[in-house]
Prior knowledge:
Blueprint: E1 18-22, H1 34-40, E2 44-50, H2 52-62, E3 72-76, H3 79-82, H4 88-102, E4 108-113, H5 115-119, H6 124-135, E5 140-145, H7 155-164, E6 175-179, H8 184-196, E7 202-205, E8 220-224, H9 230-238, E9 242-243, H10 251-265, H11 270-291, E10 299-302, H12 309-319, E11 323-329, H13 334-343, E12 349-354, H14 356-366, E13 370-373, H15 375-383, E14 388-390, H16 393-396, H17 405-427
Parallel strand pairs: 1-12, 2-3, 2-4, 4-5, 6-7, 6-8, 8-9, 10-11, 10-13, 11-12, 13-14
Amino acid sequence: MTERFAPPPARGCSTTPVLKERGQHEVFCGLTGIIWLHRKMQDAFFLVIGSRTCAHLLQSAAGVMIFAEPRFATAILEETDLAGMADAQKELDRVVHELLERRPDIRQLFLVGSCPSEVIKLDLANAAERMSAEFAPRVRVLSYSGSGIETTFTQGEDACLAAMVPVLPASDERQLLLVGALPDVVEEQAVGLLEAMGVGPIRVLPAPVRNAEYGVGPNTVYALTQPFLTDTHEALSRRGARHLPAPFPFGEEGTTAWLWAVAQEFGVDAETFARVTEKPRARARKAIAQASENLRGKSVFFFPDSQLELPLARFLTRECGMHAIEVGAPFIHRAVMGPELDLLAEGPVIAEGQDVDRQLDRARAARPDLVVCGLGLANPLEAEGMTTKWAIELVFTPVHFYEQAGDLAGLFSRPLRRRGLLKLEAAE
Length: 428
């Protein structure tokens, strides 16, 4: 095989000065990550230590019916807890004991911090350590913060996985670790492609059940499937595992580059790689071409929200023919985002953090064809005549790897088609 990727741009964004903003920002709560994590980890339970607002958020986001028994709940902090009139630790112990008696299927219990529990400085880390000792070996208790005070909504998953890494057993096994929660069908596609090349053994984090637990050590190499897993990346590096830098598997190009990085590490020859990827690559290219017809030549502006912004900008500009005006990201971790910055052609403003009023001014001045932003900004911008795409939908929808590449392009083209139809109806 002589051709694997399109040539990189003459000048990428790796040396572009980053506009760093530290003003008012719009974020969505990190507790939201529980909605997809509890589906991936089948023996885990997520106990949010928070307010009634936290409970309403989770119920609304998950769409849980009243007769369902999900694997998450909220331990409500009442006014007496917040005022320091009650011993919150004793109350937490009581709630956890009742939960584990009622749900003997739980093998992993996550105590999830929220804005209210962090405001009163409730020490969930020590509580988790104490409970782990009490309930071991049947139940492992861990803690992490899902607070939305200073974080993006995808950091909930990052904090959860980072909390799991230190308790993984040590191992000298040569293995590939795929890091990040993916829909089951997408994960199966990724593992299937790699196994067809002869790559293995392959582990995934998070694993579906604790019994599938594996170790980590200096012979572990890991590939991130989600761009927002920076704390998990650091935690794995501290355990001696080695990161495989690569663009993220969004679109045909990103998927191919990601797979090739793994293939090279495991000695897969070019002929085998071509044989395994040729047909799905062709399907992805065809699907992207069809879905992106009305994206070509259009401009896009990214507000910082999910930390998927840089990979998505690379996908839209290189594979869908769009022009990026500004790419804002909550955080830019160079070790993780370096390959993406190399491929994203010089031109757009690269912004880290947010000063929402200043960024809104830049968006209004630029008048892009499409704005990718959070829910809190989408409706006001739509009212001003702009076309928007909800960033959160890109996290909840299967968009990784070859078979989903056309769907990913379609998520961006649909708002533009909708806007065009509305204009036609108004004209009539």
